[in-house]
Design goal:
heterodimer, A: 219 residues, mainly alpha, MetI-like fold, 8 helices, 79% helix, B: 219 residues
């Protein structure tokens, strides 16, 4: 009879790394999403071109290739990254590119009359964006952001391939040590699923909170 | 480390081999995903509550867990119960099942988007269930689905490098073995990225054409 409790501890450690990775990746993705999403709506051609190039590049190549590039190729040009840094960088930049399109779509979905109202109230570009447009647009973005966060969580499993000890990696370790394949893989599948459920539940409750006070505003 | 064109020329044939397997896996996976998705969508519409609920949960589970772990599961766990699959077959099944849960949503949306009036008109014209589906619903539901389905197939294409983790000799795996033989990572990994970017950009052009031809993807 194998001593499962010890192995389960190992898998829990992996879960912590996965959660850490997903959180840091999400923060970077959120920052990149707003930078690139707003960049695509900019008045300046250079900003628009930069944002478009970033989005198309990161959506066009696979997350897997980006991760390997960050981990194996960047050191050759003098940028040494730990597996965790490479993972966060690749995940954040990749999912950020997808989320940038969400930001752009949501901001564009806010009606013309809201922009006109900003002008009528003599709000500057920044103030109009900050107090009128973004609060409404953010509500439109939230559900898709939730999906993006789940995609990011799922993508963290790829990081095990550059030897970061996340859930998937630990499951491989347990498998190698016990010779049992079924239990570790079934366990981590369930853990991933619970984490995904937590994300979608969190996003839904955040959505309800944010929608409060915006009654009557078309969402 | 400098870019070496001679080395590029030397490794190109190996990489092309990999590209072929990558494309083959994508095509087979797409066919399987299209079929699995249809099965899931129909099962979820079934009047049998037990069937539609359980299929719904399974689909939700598959969508909430990482493809990489599912591939490990198919490739390493199934042999324990006597199902031994060649790597490529296991990979195609993994891709097909995973993306089948996504295409199921496309089918569902496509069918739901056929206006109620069409169903009622079919009933008023005394069409049987079969005639209603084949002459009224399907012809109207399919065209708007096509760009959305194509979108998922492109996404699947970008996930194929994961198959290298279960020893399928696709593009990424060929590149890694080349890199490990010659201790040069810069060219192989960059070329893999270039291949993916090139194929994705071509498929984006195709997608835009499909969108123009069959209508926009709804977000």
């Amino acid at each position: 009879m194998t001593q499962w409790s010890g192995y389960f501890g190992l898998i829990l450690q992996g879960a912590l790394v996965t959660i850490e990775l997903a959180l840091m990746g999400s923060v970077l993705a959120l920052i990149m999403a707003f930078l690139a999403g707003m960049g695509r709506l900019s008045r300046f051609f250079v900003l628009r071109a930069l944002a478009t190039a970033y989005i198309e590049f990161f959506r066009g190549t696979s997350i897997f290739v980006q991760l390997f590039f960050a981990y194996f190729v960047l050191p050759l040009v003098g940028l040494e990254l730990t597996p965790l840094q490479a993972g966060v960088l690749a995940l954040g930049l990749n999912v950020g590119a997808y989320a940038a399109e969400v930001v752009r779509g949501a901001v564009q979905s806010i009606g013309r009359e809201q922009h006109e109202a900003c002008i009528a109230l003599n709000l500057g570009r920044w103030h109009g964006l900050r107090h009128v447009i973004l609060p409404q647009a953010f509500l439109v973005m939230l559900p898709t952001f939730g999906n993006n966060a789940i995609e990011l969580l799922k993508a963290t499993s790829v990081v095990s391939l550059i030897s970061l000890a996340d859930l998937t990696f630990q499951a491989q370790v347990v498998r190698a040590q016990t010779g049992n394949t079924m239990v570790p893989f079934a366990t981590i599948l369930v853990i991933y699923f619970i984490l995904a459920l937590l994300i979608s539940w969190g996003v839904r409750s955040l959505e309800r909170r944010m929608a409060r006070g915006l009654d009557g505003v078309r969402v | 480390m400098d870019w070496d064109w001679n080395f590029v020329r030397e490794i190109m044939p190996t990489l092309i081999q990999g590209v072929k397997i990558t494309i083959l896996a994508t095509l087979l996976g797409s066919v399987l995903a299209a079929i699995v998705g249809l099965g899931i969508a129909l099962a979820r519409r079934s009047p049998n509550k037990a069937l539609s609920r359980s299929v719904g949960w399974v689909a939700e589970f598959i969508r909430g867990t990482p493809l990489l772990v599912q591939l490990y599961f198919i490739f390493y766990v199934l042999p324990d119960i006597g199902i031994l699959l060649p790597p490529l077959v296991a990979g195609v099944i993994g891709l097909g099942l995973h993306y089948g849960t996504y295409t199921a949503e496309v089918y569902r949306a496509g069918i739901d988007n056929v206006p109620r009036g069409q169903w009622e008109a079919a009933k008023a014209c005394n069409l049987s269930a079969r005639q209603t589906w084949s002459h009224i619903i399907i012809p109207q539901a399919i065209p708007p689905m096509i760009p959305a389905l194509a979108n998922y197939f492109i996404a699947m294409f970008k996930e194929t490098p994961l198959l290298s983790a279960i020893t399928v000799l696709e593009l990424m795996n060929q590149a890694k073995s080349v890199a490990n033989t010659y201790y040069r990572y810069l060219e192989p990994i960059t070329l893999v990225g270039a291949f993916f970017l090139a194929i994705s950009l071509c498929s984006v052009v195709l997608l835009r054409w499909l969108e123009r031809r069959y209508g926009k993807i709804e977000r």
